[in-house]
């Protein structure tokens, strides 16, 4: 029986060699007529970080792991071992090794069984492409023909690339890169001799050598490869002996699943490869931080964090929940994009807009007393009133009544416009914005809020947050440089959480939504901006949850882990008005118009006017109001003590400017102009 099988192999070899020698033209036509199978195969969608490191990969159809791989992603030692072990004349033959084929046939006849194989790497690729068998003579003959055809259409490197992608490695693992990640827990860029030998050995018998089921078989196969490589001079005897002492894998490594919510978003937009702005090491560090921070708390709670480089707007870390697989806290829900009430975290924007419009200054005095705004009567969180205090202190204490007074003066529609200029996408419950906006009466996402605070950190200029590499950012001005610096200066003086120890280095604001449904903390230092949200995804109240107690410590820890160096907040821009209350222009010393004051109007220039530059200045014409008047340009005082209703304002040009005119009764009007 064995003799008969050997004779059959010899007959196949003889027939093939006869065809080869029977006529070059006929043989060429025979090979050229070969129909090539599909050469392009689906590979796993992959998402990589800013440095090209794998964040996450996804299985293809039927749950297979098959990942794209190029030669430069593989340790050269693997190629040396593969060719020396499988096909040492790979670079010389044209698809079929005639010497090896003849030798295999003669050995089979002599011994009555197959002693050595004759399959070249190209023939193995042919089998993989057609998913054919190796034991049937007809299949072997077809592989030879296809191998010769492949060599006519593809380079040796392209043939190796197909092998790297399709070689079976046991179970649902195909291709070298997926095998290296799953069986070795690492990319194949750098391999030890033992690791390279294992990856050479597994495709020969992928199921009987699966490390998770047949670890001992996998080890013995690896050691045989090491021995042969030492005899062939590919590695030294010492490397072979050392490699045999390495423990063989005995289980699967989990594929990376870093930034799972963000990677899901990327692949949902477009399957394939994606490069994100995320920093993998920082992302993992912060994921571990959030998981530890939430351990032992109510499992129905979730947490989210976004951290970005505020100079570029690039998101460096985005975490949608503490555990992607958690069921009690709905960990699969990405809370960085969920619409929630921001509580008090919008208050800095109200103050910044008031600074810009000349309505207030950090040292302006404002009333914290019971107030009625139509049918709306806001209350402070603690139910107390503090009388007259500085705007600075009102913001630091996060008082509600002062900020509603300022919102009424700024206008809720202007507050909404400011949010949109910052790149936010706020959602109103009703159709018309009202005074409750300042206290969180709308829906925003954590990404929205970090987007807003990015503008604060950048001196009032927005930078669109982005998490895909190569995306461009669109900038627009939200606040003046002086107003933004004033906000940072005020917020950085808020006492940090007891464990933070970073007073003056982080400007931050906390917030708690109505009913304790959302706890927030947002802030920035000299390098990064970040936001933290904690609550229940289903919106159920969390009694006792406050942004200052629950979210702020996490914010400071995240910024601290991302920070390099001191990352101090910047100095004030030169136009910043740094004076005490007594040194402020009279209209800025106290907020609010005085009784009996005539309505102030600017009759010239109209809002949006384009004017020619003049050395004498811009003509200003007023109606009503109570002199003396004060003029500010982009938050900086140009002139004060003006008693005439018509005067010239010394505006530098060319460019855009926002002029604010204040009267002694505390009224203000503002116009935007362009000097040409």
UniProtKB/TrEMBL annotation:
The keyword Protease applies. Pathway: Cell wall biogenesis; peptidoglycan biosynthesis. Residues 595-673 form the Penicillin-binding C-terminal domain. Residues 304-514 form the Penicillin-binding protein transpeptidase domain. Its EC number is 2.4.99.28. It catalyses: [GlcNAc-(1->4)-Mur2Ac(oyl-L-Ala-gamma-D-Glu-L-Lys-D-Ala-D-Ala)](n)-di-trans,octa-cis-undecaprenyl diphosphate + beta-D-GlcNAc-(1->4)-Mur2Ac(oyl-L-Ala-gamma-D-Glu-L-Lys-D-Ala-D-Ala)-di-trans,octa-cis-undecaprenyl diphosphate = [GlcNAc-(1->4)-Mur2Ac(oyl-L-Ala-gamma-D-Glu-L-Lys-D-Ala-D-Ala)](n+1)-di-trans,octa-cis-undecaprenyl diphosphate + di-trans,octa-cis-undecaprenyl diphosphate + H(+). Keywords: Carboxypeptidase, Glycosyltransferase, Hydrolase, Multifunctional enzyme, Protease, Transferase. In the C-terminal section; belongs to the transpeptidase family. PANTHER family: BINDING PROTEIN TRANSPEPTIDASE, PUTATIVE-RELATED (PTHR32282), PENICILLIN-BINDING PROTEIN 1C (PTHR32282:SF15). NCBIfam families: PBP_1c (TIGR02073). This is peptidoglycan glycosyltransferase. It comes from Thalassococcus lentus. The lineage of its organism: Bacteria, Pseudomonadati, Pseudomonadota, Alphaproteobacteria, Rhodobacterales. The gene is pbpC.
